Amino acid sequence: xxxxxxxxxxxxxxxxxxxxxxxxxxxxxxxxxxxxxxxxxxxxxxxxxxxxxxxxxxxxxxxxxxxxxxxxxxxxxxxxxxxxxxxxxxxxxxxxxxxxxx
Length: 102
Fold this sequence. Notes:
Blueprint: H1 2-17, H2 33-40, E1 54-56, H3 63-72, H4 85-97, E2 99-101
Helix pairs in contact: 2-4, 3-4
């Protein structure tokens, strides 16, 4: 039984680690927020049934917080340090406009 639990734990960690890395993606200067989201974010964030792209906590409901999270990543989220400037602003605006509050 301990071996099964250990294997399940290792499998879960491997699955979570699949999204936690630095992604070298660099969007085109004129890329829309929607284009950036669907090219990269949907690898891990699946749009919800009602068409909303995700649910945001109050802490994540500002453009600045979204841009920081995108650029630095998190425990299981890849970082995208090359999404900067206007493309980052457009991505954050798209996420805010198309998300719901938790």
